[in-house]
Amino acid sequence: MIMEIKKYKDRVLRKKCQEVKEITPEILKIIDGMSETIKKERGVGLAAPQVGVSKRMIVINLDFMKSGVFEVINPKIIRKSKEEEIGEEGCLSFPNVFLEIKRSKEVEVIGLDRYGRKFEMKAEGILARIFQHEIDHLDGILFFDRLPFIKRLKFKIFAKKK
Ligand code: ZN
Questions:
Q1: Distance between CA 121 and CA 113 in Å, rounded?
Q2: What is the pTM assigned to this prediction?
Q3: One digit per residue, pLDDT tens: the chain, 162 residues?
């Protein structure tokens, strides 16, 4: 099921998401829909609020993940490196917008897979960046919130005109 992507003016993007308490058929239906949607949109990451669902779930779609779309329920960053780097990010909720965002270089993430199995992983580079961007979505934080003050102000003015 292809889902509609909520764009940046939608207030659902600012809501803090609830943890998934139980992986029900309904939850799996949403996560399957998110996986289909991210493939169709050729995105690298998608968080549940971007399809209007305020639950802590993300999907990641990178070519090197040969297993296909990586689904994570209740993802949480348990450690991030002090070392940061700046990289370009896009967001499916902001079509054609690319911003230079500073993020930790490495993160350690815990979460559940669709069968409720716990896992822990270390990520660096692009994968670390995606985890940080998507987990921010679950807390109602959007990528331009991470811009330095003046750039953020300029971006807000630009977005208002659209
Ligand atoms: Zn995003």
A1: 12
A2: 0.95
A3: 999 999 999 999 999 999 999 999 999 999 999 999 999 999 999 999 999 999 999 999 987 666 789 999 999 999 999 999 999 999 999 999 999 999 999 999 999 999 999 999 999 999 999 999 999 999 999 999 999 998 998 888 877 776
CATH of the domain at 77: 3.90.45.10
Q: What are the catalytic residues?
A: 134
Measured in Å, residue 143 CA sits from the centre of ligand 1 at 7
CA of 90 to the centre of ligand 1 (A): 7
- DSSP states of 48-114 as a string? GGGGT--BSEEEE--TT-TT--EEEEEEEEEEE-S-EEEEEEEETTEEEEEEEEEEESEEEEEEE-T
Output the CA 6–ligand 1 centroid distance in Å: 10
The CA 92 to ligand 1 mean position distance, Å, reads: 6
Number of domains in the chain: 1
CB-proximal residues (5 Å) to ion ligand 1: 91
Asked whether residue 142 is domain-assigned, the answer is yes
